[in-house]
Amino acid sequence: MASPLSADKLVRALKDEGVKIVEYESWRTHNRNGAGAWGPVHGVMIHHTVTSGTSGSVDLCYKGRSDLPGPLCHGVIAKDGTVYLVGNGRANHAGSGDGDVLQAVIDERALPADKSADTDGNARFYGFECVNLGDNKDPWPAAQVEAIVRASAAICRAHGWGKSGDTSVIGHVEWQPGKVDPRGPGISMGDIRKRVSERLKNAADWSPGGSAPPTEEDDVPKRTLYGTTGDYTQTVEPGSWTTVRFDRKHDGKEWQTKDAEPSIAFGACFYSTTVAVRATGLSRGQELQIRVAHYAEKKGGGWERSGGMPINSPVHDGGDAHFTYAWNGHLSGSRRLRVELAHYGDEPITVTYLRAETLYWGT
């Protein structure tokens, strides 16, 4: 039985997960609690607004319609990834849905098909409306999808959901027969759940009741610095993720050439890593995706991806394609941290320079 988060706890959970929020008007006391129950809560539901434009969409979700009073959700997620908080309590977003689906969410197992509308979803789910026309043509920007993942993970983490599965986050389409949201190019509930699950396992922010972050009294962190030699190149083919390799390591005094190897951190630790990438072959306006991934040792030998951090997606604006990004996270057990790149252009690109500096604390 999960009691709903207070307004303060919801704000803290979202901010801790790196979500940019705007507190809209009197959202903290704006709800439909007089019309029915609010709680216990069991999951997060994702919708699309069937509108365009941030201001009008937020106002509509706050005030509601003549036939459906607001709030119509708890938060509105704009195209740029900003989450506008519009309600705190019961909201008119989920309607009646399938009780078997709710039970699967509670059990954290695979969702059955939604065949009935016999259960009050407004009492059981947090709801996020995302600005999208819902016509299956309006695209979902990466920043908006990332905000969906982070907002969902924030609520799951605050309640301790997602420990045995990843179905605490569902789409309206999976709850109520006849609904289609969310839909469109760039979004998939399966992908959302996978990314939420990975974030809960390997998040940069510290989960309640879990391992505590380093404190001011902790030892000074250790440091690794990896790079590439002047003649280094690595090809990244379009359409799939490529793990990049480093052929230099700084030993604290000078650079040492080494066999090309992908891992930049090892074993159980908290880490803060900054990665720089230079590449040639990108077209103006082409997107390059960069992430750091966690790898676990397979039983039969070798390594396989076991999770990772959010994807950064810089767009090449011409000139020298040089990008730098930072991530904070936690490795468990004997896992390793690696850097991966992807792009979806027509031709391969060539990485000509890499640098990864990592500060880490043992757990």
TrEMBL record:
Kindly list the GO molecular function terms attached to this UniProt entry.
Answer: N-acetylmuramoyl-L-alanine amidase activity
Pfam family membership, one: Amidase_2
User: Which protein is depicted?
Assistant: N-acetylmuramoyl-L-alanine amidase
Q: Where is the N-acetylmuramoyl-L-alanine amidase domain?
A: 27-183
Q: Which domain of life is it from?
A: Bacteria
Q: Where does this protein come from, organism-wise?
A: Streptomyces zhaozhouensis
Return one Gene Ontology term, BP aspect. peptidoglycan catabolic process
The cross-references to InterPro entries, in alphabetical order and at most eight, read:
Amidase/PGRP_sf (IPR036505), Amidase_domain (IPR002502)
Region ranges (Disordered): 203-232
